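The protein record passed on for reference:
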Amino acid sequence: MSRTAVAHTAAARLSLVVLIGGWTANQIATTASYRTGQAILLTTLTAFFLLLMLRLALAAALYRGRRLPLLVLLITVATWSLGSMTVNAASLEEQTHFPAPGEWLFLVSYLGLAGYLMIDVERRQGSQARGWLDVAVICGVSSCLASLLLVTPIRLASGAEGLALLLALMYPLADLALALVVLGQHLLQARTDSRRTLMMGAAFVLLAGGDSGFALQVSAPTYDFGNTSNALWGAGWALLVAAACRPEQRVMRAIPKAAGTRLLVPAGALALAVLTIRPDDALAFYTVPPAVLTLAAVGARMVLALRDANRAAEAFALSQTDDLTNLPNRRAVRARLMESLSDRRPLALMLLDLDGFKEINDTLGHHAGDSVLKFVGFRMQQALGSEAMVARLGGDEFAILLETVDQIELVETAHRVLHALAEPLVVDGIEIGPGGSIGITVVEDADTDSGEVLRRADVAMYQAKSSRSGAAVYDAHLDEFSRSRLELAEELRKGIAEGQIEVWYQPQLDARTMRVSALEALVRWRHPLQGVLSPVAFLPAARRAGLMGLLSDDIAWHAVRDLQRLLAAGLDLRVAINCAPPELLSQSFLPRLYAALQEWDVPPDRLVLEVTEDSFLADPERARDVLLELRDRGIQVSIDDYGTGFSSLAYLRNLPVQELKIDRSLVRDVPTDDRSRLIVSSTIQLAHALDMRTVAEGVEDATNLAQLAAMGVDIIQGYQVARPMPAAAVERWMQEWTDTETAAEDAAENRRSG
């Protein structure tokens, strides 16, 4: 803790000691001698207020962001204490008559308190003029109420009038008005520190309690109000300074609200009532000034409120209009969609995206691009007339809203718009024929949000772009980002965490011996509702949701664990794991794979990583380093789907690859297509020349198997051998396959010997 903070804490504690000790001493001394009591009171006030001012000065040094309001409060405390000491010093000689000459210092201090409240708010909003006018309205209406409800009874009961009566009532009412200001600021979230707000409100209530002595004893000509009022004043100021010196609140808990005008009408009505009723002309001195002040403040505040309303209306209109084309903008489109959703009226939305607009901007500049956008907006309005709402959403994207759900009519309208846009226009001396793609969707009964309608139209627009059809109606089957797919991704995330992912295996046979030499690990998802799902059903969702890393880690761990169990059972085989390029080149997958091999004590050479050819395209150097690392660790690498991608002989020569897996599209056509047969045969010869194994995947029948074996392929995989199976079924299937092959070999041997 800094020295300033220590001094601040000491000043706070000492001020309380001085207040309590001085009040106690004054209470005892006053019973013996009035002059002694006044001397003790004056000494106590001097020390107490000096400590309060010291505390505020130290707080200003600690909290530099609040230095101005703390200094304003310091000056206010000094002014009030100077007035108090002036009055009490005069009372040492004789009891001072109310109001004393030092009374103006108290009045100035209340202006300081009002200023402090206005600049000490944590979240300012709006102009300071509004805040001051709100304070004036609150104070004025409080004075009006007092003039109606309090002035007459107190004047009649006390016989007092003039300035003395006005001051006697003004002080407690001003305290309560300031308490109301604090409460209002808290309700508007301009003050978010609830404890500070409570302390400040309580402080003003205590001050009001002390000041009420003026109203209760207004008939007395002196300042002899007793120690109770002194204690309330001291406690009020101590609490107010303590609230001001609380640490700053740096966490924003709420957005400030705009000050409302609901108080203005009743305040103005009350002021008019005071001016109209006036029960006694002799009371005009007390009732007319606050009523006039209130009406003036209400009038000025209403002028500001009307100006704000006009600006808000203009801002709302501008907020729904595109600056460049003067067409409705995205906000207006959303509002129209929400109106249709609430009224359940038929409505269709089209989104148009210009083709080649970026090239226009890059070549001719943004000025030319802006001209094209203006032309496009104008032509769309001409083509559609008043039957549709044309809007610009931003960039080169436009929207059309039509009150129809007839898809044939919508497609015809879309092509009419595209035809109108295709007419040449001249920009900067260059003739341009804008083209575009339009996506179409209709508002459905199940829709509850305009964002979903916009999303569907956007998807349809990209479908139109990809198909180059010009216009396309939304097709849920082509929507990769539909709600159901998003839900599937979240279910998959949960499924990975809860162990719903399973690894199944498809056997690979040695083509020469027809013995099982390896297994390929294939992922399955045992969905709690949909049953076992194949990778086609959920891998696209996993890629979009960024779950491939988690999924790959889970598959690798299960595959290594199952491999350890099979090796322990005496089976001599390898396990192949598919590895996508992002996982292969990432910094996380391989370390976890190495950790799994170590955890289950599996020899690395029993593991094969199947990678696709595009793994080497994005970052060839990184891919080479990874493959060299795998070779050094003893893990084998197989190029999956060979023959379908960028099949370069260079990486076969330079990269440490042990296996080529010929794609099923080539393997399937070997019996019927000479070109496929030549490609497969040459691939087998090339692989053998480079000392690599070859795997033929997708072998579906015995004829295909026999031809591939005759061509010299090393490994056979496909439904002709076996379908993928759960890990628990592998050992039993292998035993059955071995028994069948052994029986077939024995039968063949018997036929040869017989």
In short: The chain is about 60% helix and 15% strand.
